[in-house]
Amino acid sequence: MSECGVSDRLFTIRYKCDDKSHLIIKERDTCLSCKTKDCNYFCPSDVYEWDKKQKMTTVAYENCIECGTCRLACPSHNIHWVYPKGGYGITYKYG
Ligand code: SF4
Ligand code: SF4
């Protein structure tokens, strides 16, 4: 029996990266006081990571698969989420 997890599915998409992020952290201080850092766990593409040295959430927007989770799941609603500009972002390959 073959397995098909998230990592397998990530091989079925293609990215075209914009040079500007479509994912914006609204308030850096809100992340600083956020105890749970949920975004480091709920994103299936590991876009968000807490940088202890810089004391900020880094955003690897190039890896976003546009699932929309972060527009709802940040407990402080501290992520401004829009789709990438037309022509950018991901393309799903089927079959
Ligand atoms: S984006 Fe939201 S979940 Fe992530 S560290 Fe900031 S406040 Fe916390
Ligand atoms: S839309 Fe989904 S994949 Fe993109 S950053 Fe948010 S949680 Fe991660």
UniProtKB/TrEMBL annotation:
Family assignment from sequence similarity: To ferredoxins from P.putida and C.tartarivorum, ferredoxin I from A.vinelandii, ferredoxin II from D.desulfuricans.
Keywords: Electron transport, Iron, Iron-sulfur, Metal-binding, Nitrogen fixation, Transport
Gene3D superfamilies: 3.30.70.20
PROSITE patterns per UniProt: 4FE4S_FER_1, 4FE4S_FER_2
Protein name: Ferredoxin-like protein
InterPro entries hit by this protein: 4Fe4S_Fe-S-bd, 4Fe4S_Fe_S_CS, ETF-QO/FixX_C, Fd_FixX
4Fe-4S ferredoxin-type domain sequence ranges: 21-53, 55-84
Known function: Could be a 3Fe-4S cluster-containing protein.
PANTHER family, sorted: FERREDOXIN-LIKE (PTHR43082), FERREDOXIN-LIKE PROTEIN YDIT (PTHR43082:SF3)
A Gene Ontology molecular function term of the record: iron ion binding
One Pfam family from the record: Fer4_ETF_QO
Keyword Thylakoid: no
Domain of life where this protein originates: Bacteria
